[in-house]
Amino acid sequence: MKKELKNLIEEMLKKVGIQNPTNVSVEHPADLSYGDYSSNVALVYSKEFAMSSNDLALKLVSELEKERLPEIEKIEIAGRGFINFSLASSFLSKTIAGINKNGDTYGKTNIFNKEKTIVEYTDPNPFKEFHIGHLMSNTIGEAISRVIEYNGAEVKRACYQGDVGLHVAKAVWGKLKNPDASWGEAYALGAISQADARIKAEIIDINQKIYEKDPSLFLLYGEGKKESLEKFEEIYKRLETHFDYYFFESDTGKFGKKLVEKYKEKIFEKSEGAVVFKGEKYGLHTRVFINSQGLPTYEAKELDLAKIKYEKYPYDKSIVVTANEVNEYFKVVHKALELMFPDLAKKTIHISHGMLRLPEGKMSSRTGKVITAESLIGEVKERIKEKVSDRKLTEEEKEKISEQVAIGAIKYSILKQTSGKDIIFDFDKSLSFEGDSGPYLQYTHTRALSVLNKAKEEKIPQNTYLEVRLPSNIERLLYRFPEIVERAGREYEPHYITTYLMELAGLFNSFYAKEKIVDSSDPQSPYKVTITNAVAIVLKNGLALLGIPAPEKM
């Protein structure tokens, strides 16, 4: 509809004298009372006609009325020449019918028509804890994957993990010193102890041996990697995420080094025994790609990773989700990639996110003060259990609901704003069943289901047609869902969906408070039930795109 209106306005501009109208916008008014669509075209072109924006709006509306689309019920002028369009109630009724018919597929678009996309996110390193930074990357990466998939793309999910490097050597050193320590504790011990020059030398020696696959460390190293990866899988299951490909640094190191050496004279330079990329030539900074010990750095491995990904899955787009702490690092790597493989660089999109913190401050794996994903989920879950302790639910239901609501609370708090911002997780606000929170959306969904169950008990059928009625704001908002999904996909920003769902939930809860939806004596009750069913569908679909569970009971 938005495209049709834009095309119609352009045709009307041509009729009144604009040869090539290229600056026509059609948007939704911020206030639903102003209609469903609005255009400022009269303000934009009034100077060309040497008339006021209001007079031009009158002229355009006169022409638009002659060619009015059947889906448009009313065209009005507002403010200083804005033209507002209201959708016909019959059209909105058909939309509601379409939502109920399409169910889980309502909101899907085809804007990325089978476009092959690989999304890399989470990237936890074996031998270290899965902390809340990984939780943030996982939440954003999974939501982006789901949204672009819903927009028609073919999506593969990838996880890149550092199974070699100094962090592994520190963990192995710590485990050798304290076999009873967990791998996370062993890493922290190694990280703290390396301040001693002798111990640091031992860790560097272990690092070299791991790269060379020294048999004396192979068994311990293998046990640590296996244990870490199994632990990660448990967390992925709780977060309802999965990966199609797992890539490891141990696989990218050898060929990453060869790539750098191949382009050493053309793109890289020798410096103090290392091979570096002089980023200053491109307004960036210098980074080491092969260190003075002859080992490939993370940067070199990243170059090979782009190549390996394409060999595994010939993508049209490669999306990489990381914390914004590595923004400058990624710019250098991307520039080197551009010089080596320009086609792959064009396909690569970097999306960075801020940090997730608790009120007490930032975590540090180096000092052992790590806030793990499990500990955060566990604490939120316990607080939710307290909230539902008096509900008439079985213990099994309370356990399941507490898990679902905890995951929803955390994910919503991450996704409700643009990806680049830092987040301080506020327990009280994030766990509230009222207001801007995941539990509020989940509770609204269960409320809608409760109404539908009651309607079923009282045998009130659904009906999408009423002869005389005024469309509600709920219907107008439900109609917009596919547009919201499309925008979230184009901009890789799931927060458009959270904002939309919150507005929809608010409208439905007001509707629920003011109206008696299930009423066998009310001829409008079937239609109210139909709207409720459409709300339940859209809330469930929207939550699914965010990776948030939609409980049936709360």
Distance between the termini: 37 Å
The Cα radius of gyration reads 28 Å
Please, what is the CATH homologous superfamily of the largest domain?
HUPs
Q: Based on the structure given, which CATH architecture of the largest domain is correct?
A: 3-Layer(aba) Sandwich
Global morphology: flat
Q: What structural category characterises the helix and strand content? A: alpha/beta
Biggest β-sheet: count, sense, barrel?
A: 5 strands, parallel
Average residue pLDDT: 92
Percentage of residues in helical conformation:
40-55%
Q: How many structurally independent domains?
A: 3
The low-pLDDT segments are 362-368
Which fold name fills CATH's third level, the topology of the largest domain?
Rossmann fold
Strand order, largest beta sheet: 6-5-4-10-11
Fraction in beta strands: 5-15%
Output the number of helix runs: 21
Number of strands: 13
CATH structural class of the largest domain: Alpha Beta
General description of the model:
It is a single chain. This protein is of the alpha/beta class and about 550 residues long. It has 3 domains: about 1-85, 2-Layer Sandwich (Gyrase A, domain 2), CATH 3.30.1360; about 120-355, Rossmann fold (3-Layer(aba) Sandwich), CATH 3.40.50.620; about 375-545, Isoleucyl-tRNA Synthetase, Domain 1. The protein is built from 21 helices and 13 strands. A 5-stranded parallel sheet has the order 6-5-4-10-11, sandwiched between helices. It has a 3-stranded antiparallel sheet with strand order 1-3-2. A 3-stranded antiparallel sheet has the order 7-8-9. Helix 5 (about 130-150) links the parallel strand 4 and strand 5. It starts with a helix and ends in an 8-residue tail after the last helix. The model is unreliable at about 360-370 (pLDDT under 50).
